Amino acid sequence: SASPLMEQLIFFHDHALLILVMITVLVGYLMFMLFFNNYVNRFLLHGQLIEMIWTILPAIILLFIAFPSLRLLYLLDEINEPSVTLKSIGHQWYWSYEYSDFNNIEFDSYMIPTNELSTDGFRLLDVDNRIVLPMNSQIRILVTAADVIHSWTIPALGVKVDGTPGRLNQTNFFMNRPGLFYGQCSEICGANHSFMPIVIESVPTNYFIKWISNN
Ligand code: CUA
């Protein structure tokens, strides 16, 4: 993870997985013990207590997943006074970006085709114009689309927002280290759906200011 939100998502995944493992082991043990069962019991008529237990216990276990899940859901939606807003518009098949806070800078971002790729480039993942954003600051992303539904997704930042024509979606993130963060469209948007990647250049704030004033 490169953001606090993705960190929380990973924690929740591990938490849910642990519960899942405990359930699987318990049920596996019970099913295995069934092989050694005696199917005849002269005095067995009903089992109210065990039925109470195996109804209420799973419900309680589900609460231990539901509450952390809801906490995360609302945490992901929180906008913490962003210092930069970036608008990204999905097209068939490329992204275009607008820095509306700074002199209305806007540009298109196309994938670099394999035959034009440099030796250190990532195939199907690098773009001609990267997004440059400051690290250690709260960033707001506005996502929309011009033709069909796209999805602006960057795994390392825990961000995934649909871009829908006629609607403006909002999300935010905070990058806690410099580097390049890669993403892809994740809404099946047509023939070249796989070929509209996203690249963010996470840089120190003074570098970002330099970049934005030279554009
Ligand atoms: Cu745009 Cu898939």
UniProtKB/TrEMBL annotation:
Give an example GO biological process: ATP synthesis coupled electron transport
Q: Cofactor: bound how, per the entry note?
A: Binds a copper A center.
Membrane-spanning residues: 16-40, 52-76
- Reported cofactor(s): Cu cation
Q: Which CDD domains match?
A: CcO_II_C
Protein biosynthesis keyword on record: no
> Could you cite one Gene Ontology molecular function of this protein?
cytochrome-c oxidase activity
What does the sequence similarity comment in the record state about its family? Answer: Belongs to the cytochrome c oxidase subunit 2 family.
What protein is this chain from? Cytochrome c oxidase subunit 2
Its source organism is: Drosophila mojavensis baja
Q: Which gene encodes it?
A: COII
